[in-house]
Amino acid sequence: MSNPANGPRGRLSKRRNTTSDQERDQEPGSSNNCGLSRRSTEGSQSPAEVLASSNRALQRLAGIAQYLESSFTPDIDVVEGAYGTEMEKENKIRTLNKTLETLTHIKSEEMENLRHENEELKSEQEACDQERKRCQEMKKELETQYTEAEARREEENKRKMQEEKAKLHKHVKTKKAEFEEEQKHKVRELKDQKENLSAQNRELEQRSSAAEEKLKTKKTKHALLEKVLGEENKELTTELEQLKAEFPIERQTIEF
Length: 256
Description:
mainly alpha
């Protein structure tokens, strides 16, 4: 807070007070001179003289006080006004300081709360980081397990495919051998059937040739027989005609 005596009126009053002090020091009956005179003459004065000197000094001081009061009352009013203004400012400043202290205290409490919250959040963040790290480790472990399981599955599938392929190849080979054997058997059967058919054909041809020869012989015999029978029939007819001519037959009516 600024001192009211530092203003223009304060400096004027200070100069006046300094001048008055100097004048009082120079006056013959001033208290300073009295003090010096008293110190210088104290050893030779009686108590009554000392008391009278003190009364004069007091009267002189009372006069000086009246002079000062009459001379510096306006300045004192100005100083008191300025002092009142400064006091009001001081009160405002004190109120502001108190408000500032309250706000500082509140801020300090809030900062303390924020510090605790920050510590809690930091702890939670550390816990979250640890949990995240644990999750990442678990994820990495699961990925490793998945990769290993996938590799084992692929290896198992490959092994099964090889086994199935070998089994299929063996089955195909067996089926092929069975088919080839069956085809050979069928070929042999067909060959045997062909040979049998050829033999049967030859036998049938032989039989057919024999039958044709026999039929031809029979036809020849039949032709000769027909020729003989024809000649015999012709002879019989001639003989019958001769007999009819020799022995005619009368026709008779047959009555019933």
